[in-house]
């Protein structure tokens, strides 16, 4: 790349880092890329680091030594997240979202890139300190949310299927009990999709009792994998007890009254858990 002025270099470096989260980038990469001295690159990175932290965009960590470099860790301030979730709660409280049986229509929300982007960033913030190898979800509505989260963690996505597909080769299948209706269903995962002893982050769009999430956790035992965290976009607050105890929710569906068409949605436990950002 041709030699750039500092202002242009700062813009290009920032974009380079934003598109490579959780990736260690040696200083020589930038020095060679911009035909600049390492001392100049270090000064540029100091400016970017300051802006990232002041604006709540994340952290820029520096690792010293021959194998060192810089690593961008995306994060979002809780104040900004709260504004986003309050807007999402208001949108979810629209009376026309009530479906027969007291269910909540969310498919349109799961199709909005802006919502998925912010939610993925929040999950990446919540689990930034965890050692994770893959992000897992079950088909189908949770897939976009899992990919949004994985993009900020720079991780691959593993999708658990409702049934085994011939194109995925041999698979591990288990039966699990769904939440409130206690139905027995099946989920499967290709043996090639996940390495044994992987560290997994489970992401799902909605959790009523937690039967599906618990099913994924049981399935992971067959791979000797470790669950490093569970994140759900919306949890139901209308159940006495969830099957899964340790999880992060962004929003909580507290009440649905089909007769009065009233829905109550509030911020989830994401805002009551400790965070590095305020």
From TrEMBL:
In terms of SUPFAM superfamilies, this protein maps to: PRTase-like, Winged helix' DNA-binding domain
Q: Which Pfam families match?
A: Pribosyltran, PuR_N
Q: Does the keyword Cell membrane apply?
A: no
Q: Keyword set for this entry?
A: DNA-binding, Transcription, Transcription regulation
List the molecular function annotations (GO) for this entry. Answer: DNA binding
Q: Write down the Gene3D superfamilies for this protein, in alphabetical order.
A: 3.40.50.2020, Winged helix-like DNA-binding domain superfamily/Winged helix DNA-binding domain
UniProt keyword Transcription, yes or no: yes
One Gene Ontology BP term is: negative regulation of DNA-templated transcription
Q: Which residues form the Phosphoribosyltransferase domain?
A: 116-254
Domain Bacterial purine repressor N-terminal: residue ranges: 5-74
* Subunit field text: Homodimer.
Say which family it is in. Answer: Belongs to the purine/pyrimidine phosphoribosyltransferase family. PurR subfamily.
The protein depicted here goes by the name Pur operon repressor
The organism of origin for this protein: Paenibacillus xerothermodurans
**What taxonomic classification does the UniProt entry list for its organism?**
Bacteria, Bacillati, Bacillota, Bacilli, Bacillales
């Amino acid at each position: 790349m041709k030699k750039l002025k500092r202002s242009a270099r700062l813009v290009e470096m920032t974009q380079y880092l934003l598109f490579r989260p959780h990736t260690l980038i040696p200083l020589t990469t930038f020095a060679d890329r911009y035909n600049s001295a390492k001392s100049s690159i270090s000064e540029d990175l100091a400016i970017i680091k300051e802006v990232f932290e002041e604006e709540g965009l994340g952290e820029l960590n520096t690792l010293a030594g021959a194998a060192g470099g810089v690593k961008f860790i995306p994060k979002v301030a809780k104040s900004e997240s709260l504004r986003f979730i309050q807007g999402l709660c208001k949108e979810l409280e629209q009376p026309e979202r009530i479906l027969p049986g007291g269910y909540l229509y969310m498919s349109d929300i799961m199709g909005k890139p802006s919502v998925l982007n912010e939610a993925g960033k929040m999950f990446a913030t919540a689990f930034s300190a965890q050692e994770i190898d893959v992000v897992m979800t079950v088909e189908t509505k949770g897939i976009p949310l899992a990919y949004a989260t994985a993009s900020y963690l720079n991780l691959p996505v593993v999708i658990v299927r409702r049934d085994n597909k011939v194109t995925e080769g041999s698979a591990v299948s288990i039966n699990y009990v769904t939440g409130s209706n206690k139905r027995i269903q099946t989920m499967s995962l290709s043996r090639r999709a996940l390495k044994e002893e992987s560290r997994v982050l489970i992401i799902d769009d909605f959790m009523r009792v937690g039967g599906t999430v618990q099913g994924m956790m049981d399935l992971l035992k067959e791979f000797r994998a470790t669950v490093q965290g569970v994140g759900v976009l919306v949890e139901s607050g209308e159940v006495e007890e969830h099957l899964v105890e340790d999880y992060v929710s962004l929003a909580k569906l507290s009440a649905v009254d089909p007769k009065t068409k009233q829905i109550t949605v509030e911020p989830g436990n994401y805002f009551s858990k400790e965070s590095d950002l305020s």
